Amino acid sequence: GAGVSQSPRYKVAKRGQDVALRCDPISGHVSLFWYQQALGQGPEFLTYFQNEAQLDKSGLPSDRFFAERPEGSVSTLKIQRTQQEDSAVYLCASSPQGEYGYTFGSGTRLTVV
Amino acid sequence: AQSVTQLDSHVSVSEGTPVLLRCNYSSSYSPSLFWYVQHPNKGLQLLLKYTSAATLVKGINGFEAEFKKSETSFHLTKPSAHMSDAAEYFCVVSYYDMRFGAGTRLTVKP
């Protein structure tokens, strides 16, 4: 597609509910990142994929967070047993191989009530 | 380890006056540096990037930034602010991932 597509655009979850956030990167982009942006803060790194390989998941805040990219294109960020502190905008970004600077999606705003 | 510090959380200028948004970086490697802009309820847009070519980098919408290794700085400037420049600006340092600063909110007064 023309850009990085994220869905849903907004998600309201009850505390304890599981959620799945989808990222559809630009076709052919090898690198894919997930970021978490809390209100009034800069994006914080969560995890990084190169094709289907998850090379870095050091930013995932707890074992309730899980990301996958099984076929090296679409990625899903799953959050189990959501908590209020998970409320944030979750951003996905992708880039071609060896390119600096990434194209970001519009994000998914997650609100846990 | 790499990180960036944006020295001002909020900058306010009058329309038509210069803009200066300050950023210092820390990196164990030769860094790639970026500025992104985020308008309210919009996605992040790349303004410009430095990847060890020219130290003065020109970006979109009249913005530019100068890489100064001796000062570990990468400040963003624009000669004349426009109302549409009002947004949140993020300085970013990258090795393979991207580490964001906390952001600077730019307000432009008429």
Account of the 3D structure:
The complex is a heterodimer of chains A (113) and B (110). With 113 residues, chain A is mostly beta strands. Helix content of chain A is 0%, strand content 49%. In chain A, strands 2, 4, 5, 6, 9, 10 and 11 form a 7-stranded mixed β-sheet that branches. In chain A, a hairpin with a 6-residue loop joins β7 (65-68) and β8. Chain B is mostly beta strands and 110 residues long. In chain B, 0% of the residues lie in helices and 55% in strands. Classes of the chains: A mainly beta (113), B mainly beta (110). At the A-B interface, β4, β5 and β10 of A face β5, β6 and β11 of B.
Shape of chain B: globular
Number of strands of chain A: 11
Question: How many whole angstroms does the radius of gyration of chain A measure?
Answer: 13 Å
Instruction: Indicate the percent of residues in helices of chain B.
Output: under 10%
Q: Helix and strand string of chain A, N-terminal first? A: EEEEEEEEEEE
What is the rounded distance between the termini of chain B? 41 Å
Greatest interface (CB-CB under 8 A), with counts per chain: A-B, 21 and 20 residues
Specify the number of helices of chain A: 0
Major sheet characteristics of chain B? 6 strands, mixed
**Beta-strand content bin of chain B:** over 45%
For the sheet with most strands of chain A, the description reads: 7 strands, mixed
Mean pLDDT of chain B: 92
Helix residue percentage of chain A: under 10%
